[in-house]
Amino acid sequence: MAxxxxxxxxxxxxxRLSKLDWEKKYKNKERSIEECASIVKSGxxxxxxxxxSFPLELINAITGRxxxxxxxxFSGLLVTLPDFLNPDQKDKITFSPLFMGPVERAMLDMGxxxxxxxxxxxxxxxxxxxxxxxxxxxxxxxDKYGFMCIGTCAPMIGKxxxxxxxxxxxxxxxxxxxxxxxxxxxxxxxxxxxxxxDRPLFELPDMPPDEDEVKIAKxxxxxxxxxxxxxxxxxxxxxAIGDFLSDKKDIGIHTEIITPSxxxxxxxxxxxxxxxxIHKEKIMASFILAKKEDYEFVDNNPMxxxxxTYYINDPYNIAKHKNLISINNALNVDLTGQxxxxxxxxxxxxxxxxxxxxxxxxxxxxxxxxxxALKSTGKxxxxxxxxxxLDPGTAVTTPRSDVQYVVTEYGIAKLDDKxxxxxxxxxxxxxxxxxxxxxxxxxxxNQLITQNMAANIKD
Length: 459
What we know:
By secondary structure, the protein is of the alpha/beta class. The chain folds into two domains: 195 residues, Glutaconate Coenzyme A-transferase (3-Layer(aba) Sandwich), CATH 3.40.1080.10; 244 residues, Glutaconate Coenzyme A-transferase. Helix content is 27%, strand content 19%. It has 16 helices and 26 strands. Strands 7-15-13-11-10-16-21-25-26 form a nine-stranded mixed beta sheet, with helices on both faces. It has a six-stranded parallel beta sheet with strand order 3-2-1-4-6-9, with helices on one face. A three-stranded mixed beta sheet has the order 18-17-24, with no helix packed on it. A hairpin with a 4-residue loop joins strand 22 and strand 23. The longest helix has 15 residues. The protein is globular, with a radius of gyration of 24 Å.
């Protein structure tokens, strides 16, 4: 008898037992995918969960209707290929991403992309000002009270997209974890209709660091003290840093995104959060983009909490942590320290994101540090990513007055409290050696440094 009671007490089986209850109560809201899609009309504004929370089946059913045209879809950071990218759906939609990844970059030449520039800390404000006709979400199965979690990545926006939406449709996927947090649950009473799908969540592809990224990580890791709280961006560098943090003790996490490297560090005992100043022993984030086993790890895990970026990315909340270490990627940096992380010239590459939120939060943190990391060269080694000036049209993501450290495979430039000429010397010294002489000549000719200062530039 005891083993039966234990079985019944387990969360997943409570959900299973309660399924009949909520199905009976809300049977009138259940529809086929096609029926759900049919309420969308041409010209509507659609909000959809981003990344691994993207409701692929519903969006495909919507855009696949012959009569549909001129939809505006708000989402971002796609990790799958929706049907509206096919040539036969040309001119059906405008896609407005709040952050861009490889899939969005592939849309640039299609003429359907309308990128949005907004700090992650202000995304909720942005959505509350939008006139959304239909919000489409992929959610977990309801718990015994009828609440559903809005997914692994939609929590970054929370329920702000519902502020002025006219209709709410959800597709219930049993593979979506039920995650602890705030402003990330929706009740059956709040939705207009639901359908069901059963598909594995979209996973983050393996991104092993290359030799240069390993060198960058090795420069940064010694500057991270035990008991620090860290924020890492997404990508190869984050994975490299995770690999080298194994000897640290009692690391805490307050970050936008939970990545596989963080979960690996938790399993190794490196991440405990015991010395965090707020949310002790909690991994705090806004979304998770990872692997199947990582999604299983966060399911009903009391140590993990997801909260919208209006809370996680608030610089004042970030600054409440001592020794907050923020590490982000850059595309290009000019000689005075202006950081470009979202565009190359007028060509959009990613998005405004949360970089500046964490840079400013780390600066206000007692003992905090923020690092901007980039390889010294691009275009297969033919162009320096440390530049005299940014290309015309390039968006400045982080102003030079906010930047503390810039890191390449050749070292760390400490820019805090430095004069402009001192900054220029620091930056040239972490550029690729084959570009240093050229950068020094340009700096001299533009009176950024004197001849005496040029003597401090390394060969």
